[in-house]
Amino acid sequence: MEWLKCIKSSINYIEEHIKENISIEDIATNSYVSSYYLQVGFQIMTGYSIGEYIRNRKLYLAAVALLDNQKIIDVALDYGYETPESFSKAFKRFHGFSPRQVHNHQIKRFDTLTISIEIKGGEIKEMNYKVTDMFPIKLIGFVKEFDMETSYKEIPLFWDEICEKYCYPRIYKGLPAENDYEQAIVDNCIGEYGACIECHGSKFKYLIAGRYTGGKIPEGMIVHEFPAGKWAIFDCIGPCPEKLQELNTKIFKEWLPLNKEFELRGDGNIEWYDCVNGEKTDPEYHTQIWIPIKFVK
User: Which of 102, 230, 248, 270 has the smallest CB count inside 10 Å?
Assistant: First the structure.
């Protein structure tokens, strides 16, 4: 499905089922896209995670129902809250007052989102990318689960944690490996790739990785294989992670909505980091984002 239509379709589905206990997988299935890419694209294009958007819409519509003099317990159950107490807490966090005070305050509006794109100055043409066929890509690395809403902040901290624990003591000093973790980092050049994999609901796993060359897989590491297929590879120049996150946003806000030839494939992507030339904070540091794609039928 065309990317812009996909996001609009997901919003329409949410509105049609707002009183039901819908899951992210339900919305993704209706929009013919993986739950991972739907969540990434939805948050980038709207500024809200899917979960946040659903909560906000429910709490706004609940306030409208209360203004229509419906009972608090009935409204709470209508919008998926198991008890009036849990509904009241969520309502107060959103509106700033309790459901019983709804007639004495101005409710916080949260209308249905409309999606549009605006490309200025031919920026889409400045994106440096190529489409290429690749054999299966097998990666090994350290893995950790993240939430879509906080991943932009937390993933860089994960990189810092792994580098501090396994790389700075010896590897970055050019000293020989002393344990299985250090040996795996050296043998597989772990740190050359980052990968988003295995999305479940609002959670996904992130892999600090290298190309798996065989050998022992230390405890706490995993091997993940991306199947063969077409990839769109986007070049990025500038300090990391800021420029890489900017590029990721641009891909979902500009490239995907305007691209009629390809659509997304699978439920993950890959980041490539230049491990030979320069530091990640350098203004000319080179990175890439790899997006699995297929031809539109």
Answer: 230
